[in-house]
Amino acid sequence: MLRTVAPPPHSPARPARAADPDRRRTSARTVLRCVLEHGPVARSTIARLTGLSPASVTDHCARLTQLGLLREASAPRRSGGVGRPHLPLDVDRSRLVVGGVHVAVPHTTVALLDLRGRVVAERRLPHPDTEPARVLERAAGGLASLLGRGPERRPLGVGFAAGGWVDRAAGTVVDHPLLGWRDVPARTVLRARTGLPVHVDGHARALADAERLFGRGARGGRSALHLFAGNIVDAAFATHDEVHHGPRSQAGAIAHLPLTGGAEPCACGRTGCLQAELSERTLCRRAREAGVCDGHDPLHVVDAAAAGHPVAARLLRERARMAGRAVRLLTDVLNPESVIVTEIGVIRRTDCLAALRGELDPARAATVTPTSFPESVLAVAGGAVALDVLYRDPLSVSPERI
């Protein structure tokens, strides 16, 4: 069933002279989101789903097509076999891309994403050092290299995501304890290196936006919790098509929440903090101590479990159970309609997903799903920051970049 796409409410408190431009931007956003969710779709169907007039839809579609965001589908659709064929519209994936940068503890992921959030090119850059300027310089160089391989694709902007405390408005990584970053002006540095608009956010919020736009999870007015458990553990909460940021984008800082049954010492001096229990560093250390593998890559633990190593499988299930307790704690407070989990065992193993769900009551367990982007989660996190801005204000696209 097609879902009606209702435009966000217009605030009557805005000045009268700003009403028309604001309404135009809101309507353009509504049209583009409708095509994203339902395309290829005829203009008449867009008008019906959004409640906008046919003339307004035609006007916005023409402008969005001119900007390179929409295109006419190659095969027209006929209406009952009578009259002129409809020319359905779809999001144009052929020309425009956004760059994505995700800075993790061991490496940076750079990628290009099309306008449907699909990764078209990706590269992982290990950190020889974690000095912020050099990390960001290498990221800019990696993006330039990817763009050079497909000169027909035009970049609209760059999205940057990382764990820890990331201030979206200021464009800074305020605090990333594992990298040792403090007040790093990521937006300013990347904009100077790339010459492109740069947008910055935390990776859990970025992935919540990606799910809202492109995923199989929560969309529209539904509420959703996203738990990210990597080396950094954090969360995001979205409701009514908005991801909550809070003052200075501090929402989602859950590292030191106490976890039932946790006994892992934390750097804060306590034991059982969520970050200490769920960090991939903890998983890899336990795997080394158990003789499962020698490295620091959690994928080695997954590979060992897939090869039949019983201890590796047990370690992954135990971590998934602890993630389930974290979900239980967070859902008791937020009561979301759906829960998305990005955790390496849950993504790749059904027994881990079952272990996580086993910590929840059956009704809640049924709402928990893994990320929609299992093979490209870090690339999508970076690109989604820029794509979220695009879909909120498509008329901000510069014709010079088309």
Strand and helix layout:
Layout: H1 16-38, H2 43-50, H3 54-66, E1 70-72, E2 89-91, E3 96-103, E4 107-113, E5 119-126, H4 132-149, E6 154-162, E7 165-167, E8 172-176, E9 181-184, H5 186-194, E10 198-202, H6 203-214, E11 224-229, E12 233-239, E13 242-243, H7 274-278, H8 280-289, H9 298-306, H10 310-334, E14 338-343, H11 344-348, H12 350-357, H13 362-365, E15 368-370, H14 377-392
Parallel strand pairs: 3-6, 6-10, 11-14, 14-15
Antiparallel strand pairs: 1-2, 3-4, 4-5, 7-8, 8-9, 11-12, 12-13
Describe this structure in words.
Helix 6 packs across helix 14 and helix 10 packs across helix 12 (350-357). A five-stranded mixed sheet has the order 5-4-3-6-10. Strands 13-12-11-14-15 form a five-stranded mixed sheet, sandwiched between helices. The model is unreliable at 1-19 (pLDDT under 50). It is built from 14 helices and 15 strands. Helices cover 41% and strands 20% of the residues. The protein has helices at 16-38, 43-50, 54-66, 132-149, 186-194, 203-214, 274-278, 280-289, 298-306, 310-334, 344-348, 350-357, 362-365, 377-392; strands at 70-72, 89-91, 96-103, 107-113, 119-126, 154-162, 165-167, 172-176, 181-184, 198-202, 224-229, 233-239, 242-243, 338-343, 368-370. With 402 residues, it is an alpha/beta fold. It folds into three domains: 18-91, Winged helix-like DNA-binding domain superfamily/Winged helix DNA-binding domain (Arc Repressor Mutant, subunit A), CATH 1.10.10.10; 96-207 and 378-401, Nucleotidyltransferase, domain 5 (2-Layer Sandwich); 220-371, 2-Layer Sandwich (Nucleotidyltransferase, domain 5). It is globular, with a radius of gyration of 22 Å. This is ROK family transcriptional regulator. Residues 1-26 are annotated as: Disordered.
